[in-house]
Amino acid sequence: MVDAVVVGAGLAGVSALYHLRRQGIRVLVLEASDGIGGTWYHNRYPGARCDIESLDYSYSFSEELQQDWHWSERYASQQEILAYVQHVVDRFDLRKDIELNARVVSAVFDETDGRWAVRTENGQQFSAKYCLLATGVLSAAQVPQIRGTESFQGRSYHTADWPTEGVDLSGDRVGVIGTGSSGTQLIPLVAEQAAHLYVFQRTPNFVMPAQNRPMDPDLERHWKEHYPELRKKARATRNGHNQISNPLRGKDVSPEERRAEFERRWELGGLYMMRAFADILTDPEVNAEAGDFAREKIRQIVDDPATAEALMPPRELALGTKRLCSGTNYYETYNRDNVTLVNLREAPIEAVTPTGIRTADGSEYELDVIVYATGFDAMTGSFLRIDVRGRGGLSLREKWQHGPRTYLGVMTHGFPNLFILAGPQTPSVFSNMVNQAEIHVEWVNECIAHLEKNEIDTIEANEDAENAWVDHVNELASRTLYAQSRNSWFWGANTPGKPRVFMPYVGGIDRYLQKLGEVVAHGYEGFTLRSRQLARA
Ligand SMILES: Cc1cc2nc3c(=O)[nH]c(=O)nc-3n(C[C@H](O)[C@H](O)[C@H](O)COP(=O)(O)OP(=O)(O)OC[C@H]3O[C@@H](n4cnc5c(N)ncnc54)[C@H](O)[C@@H]3O)c2cc1C
After folding, report:
1. Would you say the CB of residue 186 lies under 6 angstroms from ligand 1?
2. Distance from the CA of 396 to the center of ligand 1, in angstroms?
3. What is the DSSP letter of 389?
4. Core-most of 143, 146, 156, 439, by most CB within 10 Å?
5. Beta strands in 212-253 (DSSP E)
6. How far is residue 211's CA from residue 102's CA, in Å, rounded to a whole number?
7. pLDDT, tens digit, for every residue of 142-196?
8. Average of pLDDT values for 60-67?
9. Would the CB of 38 count as within 6 Å of ligand 1?
10. Whose CA is nearest to atom 18 of ligand 1?
């Protein structure tokens, strides 16, 4: 018998275990896979790394941990982040409460005893007062429905399910399908190994140079001297990290100054371009100028004009409205003799064949290996793959059939004591997600402490508060360029049959945190707290 079941042992689940255990809650973490680390356990493809500085993309809950840990690069590699999570798990003796190979298939709320019955694929059942879903917004891998995939006689891999032992591609003819964040990180490294690499590209996205480099010792020293302030500062920003944002609007400065700023952002690297001007995601002209700047860079880097043209994101794709990619030598890779870009806008993939890929113009690409860099059923996929049932048997899948509905992204009406960590309708994917996870875990931890102290049995989001939050999320998004570029996983566009609903919260970490705080200060406003003796709204 446990008090809380946490589903998922990624950064959010591990943090939840640490915090809840410290307040005396008996916690069990159920993890589907055979390892801890979530994203950083699954995405072991060559080149996988974070695009928020390592010093920011790390837990803040232990000063000793932050002082002891050394990040070797500006942007940590997958291996280093995984080593970090495993260090945290061992250091705080968390492993004993994490059960691996335990995929949760259902979670059902029993109104008679006010507890969740959580069942795993292998038939285990656990009962808990609280159920926390920490299953990740980018964890339900998306395998495209292409005719003939099963017939392929070579090897196939998905970037989010990369073999632990690695993959030797030397001498192979490799096809990579997908040029989003994973594909653009992977492609340059595969090109170095493969005999020939074919990149199958549908919609090109903007890829900024990561400008990754070894950790600057002075910077690390500075962070170690000022961690508490820098963590605080991160939470006072929209994106939850310390990347420099320009407070000016694009049109506050001259065209020359705008260009200089774009150049500076290109040199700063990665996601810094998103913070070139305060209105880059709201003023179409400023955004278009940033897009043109990036296109010009592509033209300068890529030798073959036709390839450069094919790599240019279309003008209707506003920069950043598909998640900006951060890569190393991405465009340069197309200057190699062993790399061919296959433009699927001209001729889409018709079928995977036993020997490779055939496109609609009749071209046959002979391959030894196909890599699916095709991303995720993002934001809601991992939550909805579980059969979650709340009061009266209400199904989460049915409730969210037209898109997610939550109050503050943290709970959903009809599902008492079910907490969603770092999921839809939170800043999540627009922020430093470690920060997002910690913010949620701290809030839930405090909430559970409040319930326990006051002998309250359940907390549940009110429907009107939820409706207001959903409206607020949509309203803020409608004021941005995201509303015009709907062809992204932010909108569910990459998942067949998924409703086109904008899922993240664009209001920012700072505003979100303030709202979470106000709700608590007003006695969990918008929630109903019930105990056996009394019910109060
Ligand atoms: C390649 C890649 C790079 C990224 N880079 C960045 C970055 O630079 N900065 C950033 O902020 N974010 C980044 N992200 C987002 C990243 O997902 C988050 O930063 C963070 O790791 C999410 O942690 P999490 O614990 O919420 O979810 P996850 O890490 O996804 O963990 C969820 C866990 O739940 C498990 N699970 C799912 N369903 C079940 C089930 N039914 N039963 C049991 N277990 C289940 C999964 O196996 C997984 O281990 C990146 C994502 C990817 C894929």
Report:
1. no
2. 21
3. E
4. 439
5. none
6. 39
7. 888 899 999 999 999 999 999 999 999 999 999 999 999 999 999 999 999 999 9
8. 97
9. yes
10. 433
Span from the CA of 310 to the centroid of ligand 1 (angstroms): 31
User: Going by CA atoms, what residue is nearest to atom 22 of ligand 1?
Assistant: 136
DSSP state of 372: E
pLDDT computed for residue 143 by the predictor: 85
Q: How confident is the model at residue 494 (pLDDT cuts 50, 70, 90)?
A: confident
Band (pLDDT 50/70/90 cuts) for residue 237 is: very high
Atom of ligand 1 nearest to the CA of 435: 11
Phi-psi region of 383 (alpha: psi -120 to 50; beta: other; left: phi over 0): alpha
Between 448 and 486, name the one with better pLDDT.
Answer: 448
CA distance 350 to 324: 28
Per-residue model confidence (pLDDT) at position 523 = 97
Kindly give the distance from the C-alpha atom of residue 437 to the centroid of ligand 1, in angstroms, as a whole number: 10
Output the pTM of the full model: 0.96
400 vs 156: CA distance, rounded Å: 33
Quick: pLDDT tens for 389-447.
999 999 999 999 999 999 999 999 999 999 999 999 999 988 999 999 999 999 999 99
Residue 533, pLDDT score = 60
For ligand 1, say whether the CB of 269 is within 6 Å of any of its atoms.
no
Tell the residue nearest (CA) to atom 5 of ligand 1: 50
E strand or H helix at 29, and its extent? strand 27-30
Residue with tokens 């309203």: 475
- Rounded-to-integer distance, Cα 150 and Cα 161, Å: 17
**Which atom in ligand 1 lies closest to the alpha carbon of residue 41?**
49
Closest to 389 (Cα-Cα) out of 421, 423, 415: 415
Cβ(174) – ligand 1 distance below 6 Å:
no
**pLDDT of residue 537 exceeding 60:** no
Taking the centre of ligand 1 as the mean of its atom positions, its distance from the CA of residue 241, in whole angstroms, is 18
Q: Which residues contact 375 (CB under 8 A, 6 or more apart)?
A: 138, 141, 142, 160, 178, 180, 181, 182, 489, 494
Other residues' Cβ atoms within 10 Å of the Cβ of residue 70? 11
What pLDDT, on the 0 to 100 scale, is given for residue 536?
44
Q: At residue 323, does pLDDT exceed 70?
A: yes
Which residue's alpha carbon is nearest to atom 16 within ligand 1?
A: 39
Question: For residues 318-344, b (16+ Cβ closer than 10 Å) or e, as one string?
Answer: bbbbbbbbbbbbbbebbeeeebebbbb
> Ligand 1 within 6 A of 388 CB?
no
Half-sphere exposure at residue 63, Cβ-oriented, CA atoms within 13 angstroms:
6
